[in-house]
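Run Trypsin-like peptidase domain-containing protein through structure prediction, thanks.
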Amino acid sequence: MSENSRPSGFPEYGPHQVNPEWPPPPAYAPPASGPEPEYTGPAHKRSRGPAKLLVAVAIVAAAVGGTTAYGVQELTGGSSTGVTASSAAETDVVPASLKGTVAGVAKSVSPSIVEIKAASSSGSATGSGVIVTEDGEVVTNNHVVAGASQIQVRTHDGKSYSARVVGTDSSKDLALIKLEDASGLKAATLGDSDGVQVGDQVVAIGSPEGLTGTVTSGIVSALDRDVTVSTDEDQGQQQWQRGGGWPFEFGGQEFNGDTGGSTTTYKAIQTDASLNPGNSGGALIDMNGNIIGINSAMYAPSGAESSTAGSVGLGFAIPVNTVKADLPDLRAGAGS
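Sure, done. The structure for Trypsin-like peptidase domain-containing protein is below.
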């Protein structure tokens, strides 16, 4: 049936005609008195449901954002430290097109890793470091710079800087050095090592055997491993002079040489990412590009000489949360 069809028996009217039998419409009568009623909107409230939902979502988003910002501020001790830091949930370090790839991590973080050459009366050492401020603060291992009379640092772009020791903490095998006349450097993003889990993929960047900017990858093999290292000022330098290696103790046995008379034990992240002499002080990084640890020691089979020790897939890193907690004291000149 079409729109204009009608049942038989119905009269036809023109477009402007009405049935003469219909009663006339009632005349409009204005209110007798009083002001006109205010418009309060449509009587139905169905359309207000989505509006309320949108407002609720916005409030929740604002609350989440506020909580995240507060957490980051608490984590870093405020913005005055000059450290670029984030939680492990941050994902903007690596470009979106390379997110989750070793290539992406290497491209994003390599500019924040340096090679360190330290010289002393006992010999010389080559290690690595992590830039934590744009003006040249670098975190490394204490055993890399212990007793050093001269420190030279080379950045990813090939520039060389002289550096001085700001503070050391032999009990945590950490040191902070400062590059002279440096500016515009790319500071690393410090993550949250408490969020690290066994099986997480990781990348290590450093200068093993003086091979600057070497990238290796693996997984987190274990957490909270007790690693004992020497706190003797010249012990690390003497080991490097004899051919490299990190003197440390694990599981009650000493590896890569004598740990010396004074030792310290810390809880370490264990990784199977390849680490070799020269990786000391370099970065262990999650797949979002956040630093989760400072590489510090490696395992070598019993009987292996320091000069021939190499990676067997058992490396250890100082958790980055330990580093962040220690930074204020290092900046204040602790141990130096």
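Residues 48-76 form the longest helix (29 residues).
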